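Q: Hi! First time asking for a complex rather than a single chain. Here are the components, and I think there are two in total. Is that enough to go on?
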Amino acid sequence: MSWYYVGPDAKPVGPISLEDLQARRAGGAVAPETYVIEAPAGSAPKEWRRYRDVFPPAATLPPLPVTALPPTPAPTMGVPHPIFPTPPPPTPSPGGPVFTGSHPSTYYLPPAKGNPWCAWGFGLGLASLPMLLLCGTGVFVAIAGIVVSIVGLVQVSRHRDQEGRGLAVTGLVLSILALLCAIGIGIALATSGSWHTGLQMTTEQTSNDSDTR
Amino acid sequence: MSSPRWTLALGACACAAAGAYAFAVEPAGGAYPRCLFYETTGYYCAGCGATRALHALLHGRVLDALHDNVLFVALLPVALGLILKWAAPAWRENRWPAVPLEPRALVARGAALAVLAAVFMVVRNLPGTPFDWLRPLA
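A: Yes, that's all I need. Here is the structure of the assembled complex.
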């Protein structure tokens, strides 16, 4: 009896035992909203279901609702893989889930899922500009935002069922903007000769930098 | 080599190296990166004095550290605790740490932190005696 769950970056994690799954729920790796699936040895997997639906909070654990279901007959061909058990459906309906064959793990995944890389890229881009005021640490945030946004864009372009392209583009633009601002300030400081000396901008110093130093 | 535990160990080593650098190098020599905001405007930002505070803290001079950047000293144990809480289960089970993605809570906490930093930044640049206690020492 083994279980899988949808980990971060939308990939199934497993096989793990039931105890391990519950331990991960207690540890926070598996949320109540996380999709889990049971893959009994020798039978095809059932549907992905949310953890809280499989294990209702009030119910005690031993009489599992899933195990109460009648076991599905084992597939006749080959060794069943829990994620990619059977040949793909011959003719997927136009509106339904599209099976491309290159990403079998996405076939059973819930549709239209926000890509976390895109969300994080947007968050980093948003934080990079104000964090330039924090000793210039926004530079590192901007670099991280560029990388994460690009990863998100690549993932979204590969996985049709994921959303977040707009977030990633916004994050990328904001990050590049912050980086350009920082580079401009750095060049201005370096050429004015005040870099590494400390520019005390007082009222009598604004005219020229040929004063007391 | 690219297992989660190795990566976490690498991150911990980087933090330890940064701490060793802050312990060994005197802030007066100019061996630390300088604040972009302070260099440009002459005003202290909310993070100014953080490396000096870390140096003083590692040498046991808590009062100096509080003087350098009280916000940094106050938030450092909180940040360390949160990072440990985030990374400890991943280390124990040798898996990648879960991405904390609860947008509402994240945005609320980030905004609260930003407001706190902005208030601190304004207050420490005010003229007068009680406010200059919030400015870095050297």
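A: Chain A has five helices and six strands. Let me know if you'd like any chain examined more closely.
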